[in-house]
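User: Um, any thoughts?
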Amino acid sequence: MPADAFALTLAAAVLHASWNVFLRGSDDVEAGFAVVLGVSLLLFAPVAAVTWSVSWAVAPYVAASAALEGLYFALLVAAYRRRELSVVYPVARGSAPLLVLLGTAVVLGRHVSAVAAVGVCLVAVGVLLVRGFTRGDEGVLVALAIGCAIAGYTLVDKEGLHHAAALPYLELVLAPVGLVAVPAVAIRRGAHALRAQLTGSTVAAAVAAFSAYALVLAALRLAPAPEVAAVRETSIVLATLLAALFLRERVGLRRLAGAAVVVGGVALIALA
């Protein structure tokens, strides 16, 4: 993998982990998310306009992806209310590539290699280590549902991007989510809840959230997608470490090892 592509992808992983740490650490996760989403849409609208290249054929993909993104963000808020980031993030991000692989194998009838099968097993073991061995963990179940949503919009976006440039496509997909989320929080909680979350840290998180995607796109121009995907998922370990450092979560060796095992499994799936 070229050094510049590696640097771009690693930067994307750091940014993605960072904005999730900000969201989980917010005293109002729901309002914090709404503000991050709204600010990111406003900041990157000019960039999307300048790079605009969209076909009408993209409409069904935008609609489907927007619905899945809305579900993803709703589940993310619910999960962060119930469980630590060092549990939710590895389970959600780690299960998504596994579900994409299984979905393409079952729906499209594609062959799953032995290496990918080993990767699936590693992800399962890693998730179990992150989760621990307690029963009835609602937060983990929500995190797995997040993984399903990620897998869903990943498969939709793969096809949708054939009909639109990447940044305009992302703006179109997230705009309906923002137009629902921001007014919904304002109506339910009052505009003061949104104003309270409108800080410099929120703007930084908004830039990080959108930039993480843009950096991955830049890396894909320089290196093969499987290699980029494998490095991208280092965010799982980074998020776990950041949760311990900044959120004071109790990240023991078992949970950290589980996050590392998940990354290893994802890497095998991506490179198979």
Observations:
- The longest helix spans residues 59-82.
- Residues 205 and 222 are 26 Å apart (CA to CA).
